[in-house]
Amino acid sequence: MVGDKARGEMNAFQRNESKETLFTFISAGDDPPKGDFPVQKKSPKLCGSNYPLSIAFIVVNEFCERFSYYGMRAVLTLYFLSFFHWDENLSTAVYHAFSALCYFTPVIGAIMADSWLGKYKTIIYLSIVYVVGHLIKSVGAIPSLGNQVVHVILSMVGLFLIALGTGGIKPCVSAFGGDQFEEEHTSERSKFFSIFYLSINAGSLISTFVTPVLRGDVKCFGEDCYALAFGVPAALMGLALVVFIAGSGLYRKTPPQGNILLEVCKCIGFAIKNRLKNRSSQIPKRDHWLDWASEKYSKQLIGEVKMVTRVLFLFIPLPMFWALFDQQVQYSVLQVCPPAWGIYVLQPDQMQFLNPLLILVFIPIFDLGLYPLINMCKFNFTPIRKMATGMILAGMAFGLAAIVEVKINETDMPRLVPEESLIRVLNLAKNPVLVTIQEKDLFQQPMEAFQNPAEYSKLILNGEQQSLRFTLQYQGLSLPFNYTVKEKSVYSLIVFEAEGNLSSRLITDLEAKPENGLAAVRFINGLNQDVNLTIDSKWFIAVRRNYSASEYSLLERDKYNNGKCITEMGEFTLELGLLDFGASYTIVITNISGGAVKTWKSEDIKANNVHMAWQLPQYLLISAGEVMFSITGLAFSYSQSPASMKSVLQAGWLLTVAVGNTFVLVVAQAAPMAQWAEFVLFTVLLFAVCIIFSIMGYFYVSVDPEDLEEKEEKRETPSRGNMISLVTQKTKL
Known about the structure:
By secondary structure, the protein is an alpha+beta fold. It contains 17 helices and 24 strands. Helices cover 47% and strands 17% of the residues. The longest helix is centred in the N-terminal third of the chain and has 32 residues, at 148-179. InterPro entries: MFS_trans_sf, POT_fam, PTR2_symporter_CS.
């Protein structure tokens, strides 16, 4: 498999040829290189294998860092919703903006590593920034520390530093791990990327399960302990830094090569300028457009730039995969009903553990079973084909996600169009009541007292809003009331007796299901005195007397039987029962009896009834697709890059994730649509992109580093030492 033959460490110091410097191999009898970059240093082996001991420190570092990142991210959306009380659109936008920033900043880390500090020092310095960001984020989650403006500022500063830290070290850690292997151990290096990915998902698996427990089950400052949920990832990032530094004496450290990215840009710019300048001249045409830079730049640099630009061109279609992948995590997961194991019910933000769990299972299955079996069948399963297969599997997963979303929407409110509203009747009086609305034939039968209301009835208006006459027939009396109704709104007409007279009030209901699997609840106070309600020791709600209605409160799915109702008469027990996933409830306080508040509960919007098992097929597909796509792409981008540009090309690979998240933001803002329709759109786009990528991959040629070095060794002369010239041996993938 050509793409998996990693190029290996070029055991040399590289400088620009225009300054009369060379790639010089250091022979066994030469003095070792001086400074901080002992390229030829051999690390002790792990248990007699060809794996350097140094990679153990790198793998443990990556495990702790990924625990830190994914643990923080697992509770981030709920943090925005519950702590900041942002709406779903703003929370989702900030989440994707943060994710995109985490994958734009690898460019910064790559430039620092390849041009200035080297990979080792870049990882150290940016890890310190990473830890500081986590600490600021944790402090910002302490409720007693200032007002919400202070919390938002600290959190955004913390997230920015985290994005800079995690993104900056991303291209360096994987490339640094590849650097630890000796040239002849290409097979072990290829397997290292699978081990590396295993450590990523092991950290993700544990953190996405544990961190939500720290948030929800541990209480601090009288509410969910977000400070602890962010503090533990901060501690793990600190541990990651300590572990990485502990292995310092074992690492093979490659020196930075100067401002490589600037040289690449200058080379490309000069080639384009020179080609345009001579487009009408009689100068013979050249094999490649970059060859027009040969008047100023060395063949070596031009060859390297050719390698990088061809790979980056191949990466152009790849962001669509990541657009689907992050959509899968962010939206559909929290709409299903997580399973209960005994008395324990998974928290909504714990559902994300399925993806890393499946990846931990799939990696050994694919590496030890599926890929060898395919090779036995004499099928050339190249990296391009693996990545295309991963894209197909992800597209299939999203097709299934669209089906699940349609099933979920069966319990949602109907979507309203202009000049259309929904209405229902809640009869809180003692006897049946029949409601008629001016020129509308909606309610045919009287509504019994405290009868669970039927489905909402559709109300057609004559414009954006209309004043309507409501008539209540009650115990032989006909009582008129006038209310103004607006289009695309949902209403409940509550009918009640106040001081012996029948009265009514039109209140606004939720227009859609609560987001992220939360439950919505509001209260109607049927007492003749004001009440203050406390739910789960953290939700305080004040409701005025005589059938006033509170605003909706969003709660996590749970049984709430330990609430308190505080009135002028004293404090009484409030039992709400189960508030289920995605449901909306109206709870009427009817009276006080026997030391407890008596209530009547109506389920306005039905709870989610789609079990998590419906999502298992799509999780299996997208996780298998990620293993084929992401691990292969990580190793491919390393193997196809020159030694001086490995971090830069790793950053280019990670940049595809950033572009994918940005694409999600643009689509969500530019063309709001139903979730299932968005899933279908992304599925179609991914299949189209997969076809384009496959065509591009068919014409892509890869470099076999071993063949290149063998050819170059034949051309070397003793006077110049071991000079390396990147002459590409083209092999079709």
